Amino acid sequence: MKYLKNVTTLKYNKDKCTGCRRCTEVCPHAVFIMDDKKARLTDADACMECGACAVNCAFGAITVSAGVGCAAAIIHSMIYGGEPTCDCSGPGQSCC
Amino acid sequence: MKEIKITGPAQGIKISPATSPGCGCSPVVPGPAGDRASAAESLAGQDFVTGTYAFNSRTFPQVNAAWKRADHRGQVRSRLGAFRMSYAVMPGLYAKGTPDGNSPVLVSCNYKLSFDIIRRELADINAWILVLDTKGINVWCAAGKGTFGTAEVIHRIQSTGLIGLVDHKKIILPQLGAPGVNAAEVQRRTGMRVYFGPVRAGDIPAYLENNMQADAGMRRITFPIKDRFILTPMEIVPAARPLLIFTVAILLLAGLQPRGILFHDMLIRGMPLVFLGTASVLAGAFLTPVLLPFIPFRSFALKGWLMGMAVTAALVYTAQMHGGSIPLLLAMLIFFPAAASYLALQFTGATTYTGISGVKKELHYALPVYKGAAILSAMLMLGDKIMQWGIL
Q: Are B288 and B193 part of one and the same domain?
């Protein structure tokens, strides 16, 4: 299953990679694989922008504008402001 | 009981001091922490705790793999509704079986269903389970929000006195907790090396047996039909309230005649619309999630619209629900597929692969369409009403 093409904010700078493998360990969609002692970005469209790779890249090689891919959260943030979160804490509301 | 020993020094990871985002927490001082004794007592009072376990002149609440009736009931209730928001275990350090200084340390959230699944999947393995305070939210959502986060991991390692209890320096976090946890920061502050375990709790035994190495399959998140199906009640239940409001409004409108509100008209003219409304909820909140990969398009709005259109068109055609009225037919074909599309878009919050940029893009195009569809279909309904009353 793949989501929309060419929308991800994931950016990878191979020059900064030291080959620590953390990104390949944390990505649940195998967007990064090891290739010749460095991480290689495979299919950026598989990225769901969870931010795990960027948070865990100690060398600043990866950036992504992370957030929740949840329509309810985004609509909530449009109406009430703030960042979309997996919070669902409105009265009587619950989701994730 | 199976003994899995965690031995050897933590493999070092190169840590660059230049890029260390502050986590807002104080440096960890190994040693006794304040809330330990009182916490152990209240932790033991929870009904899934089978006893207390003494180790290293300390006591810990002990749990095992077996689920009681209440655990099964809790799982069902948490899948259905708001009960899940208060389904939590107390944060702290638990003994699964009879762990010792060489046993693995697994970090979890305090959503009780997640905790129950971990202890069940550990089967006969002895381990320590370090439960974080994620406000009763599951690992992935809590990691996205940051409550399953660097600061909480560090705090919980400190407040439970984990350092000194185990002879190794390794903690295993669920892979899906990684969006919230900077592993290098945890190691820098506590000396504990973070290992991200498999995505699924069911793979934990194999991961431990395999010397804490996850194969590629353990690292990938999937979204099989069983998982999609189990999530649908949480799509349908929230849609029930708007459907009820729609039903009341439609029945009143349908019954409204120059002679008053007539029960006969309510049934004859209103019930088909209520029926279509229910069908569109099922198309968007049940059929679309379950059939997800088999429906054309990547966009959830389009998938939902397609399912809604298929269901609406089939029902209207077979039962001639519009009763020959063209405005009513158009209103039906405009409104109900759009409603299904809106509901299908809500499912993006439950999937394992939709990102925020994509959902924002969908909403950017879809929300104006939904508004337009609602206004247009309301006008068509009004037109149908006017024709019905013979005003024109």
A: no
